[in-house]
Amino acid sequence: MVPKLHIVPKHKDNAFSIRHDIVPQFGSIWHYHPEIELHYLIKGEGIRFVGDSIGNFQQDDLILMGSNVPHTWKCNSPNSTDYHVEALVLHFHPECLGKEFLNVYETQGISKLFEQAKTGLVIKGNSKEKIKRLMWRMIQETGLNKVVYLLRIYVILLESKEYEILSNSVDYIKFNQLDGSRMEKVLSFTLQNFRNKILIDDVAQLTNLSVTSFCRYFKMTSNKSYFDFLTEVRLSHACRLLIKTDYTIAHIALDSGFENPSNFYRHFKNVKGITPKQYKSRFFSE
């Protein structure tokens, strides 16, 4: 998938920005920006795409995404006019406090943290709780106090081992000069139709490419085949149903677009390393 450059809104005199979003849904365009993003989800759930990772997001998630990491959020919005999602979103450029800030002895390690953030990190445990509190305080502050809270977040992230890596390390810059509109069509089409049988010919037609050219293009830009991508979308949906419902495995398999339960079991075990039943048991035992 090819991302679009997104200009993060920020006052020209501010070093970084934090905002409290309450909106019908998060922007769904596959995009990237040079600023690092720390995203705390207060309300909402759906499927997230971070780099080459596909997974579910839900309330109370805290995710750190590095510079130019392409990402998007596809919300599971009920048919209700008053439904909304909510998040605290902090954006800061790696050099927002000056180029020399990263080169002094006292800030050793921050550059390495920023580099690791390019894999996408889900922050967990006590580290998450501390950062959540700081983000709430930061949004109410101005001036130097706001910078102090940013530095405190740096310290927690730098010292924490409580995180999950989302994505493989990929050279995302190569995506930036390609046309993103056709792959945005592929993403939207897949999310609307993954429960049904999808033919590669129909997907290729969306991009005005031959099947062979489309398969090569998709693999080059997303680091995986289209059918691997489709399987991950289906499995993310299946994981949500395993956790949120009491549906049978057979029902979940069909609702997620798999031909039959045995096909679902095979793909689930291959990608997740455990069976659907073990996945559900582990989730509720944690």
TrEMBL record:
The keyword Transcription regulation applies. InterPro entries: AraC-bd, Homeodomain-like_sf, HTH_AraC, RmlC-like_jellyroll, RmlC_Cupin_sf, Tscrpt_reg_AraC-type_HTH. SMART domains: HTH_ARAC. Keywords: DNA-binding, Transcription, Transcription regulation. Residues 184-282 form the HTH araC/xylS-type domain. SUPFAM superfamilies: Homeodomain-like (SSF46689), RmlC-like cupins (SSF51182). GO terms for molecular function: DNA-binding transcription factor activity; sequence-specific DNA binding. Pfam families: AraC_binding, HTH_18. The keyword Oxidoreductase does not apply. This is AraC family transcriptional regulator. It comes from Spirosoma telluris. The lineage of its organism: Bacteria, Pseudomonadati, Bacteroidota, Cytophagia, Cytophagales.
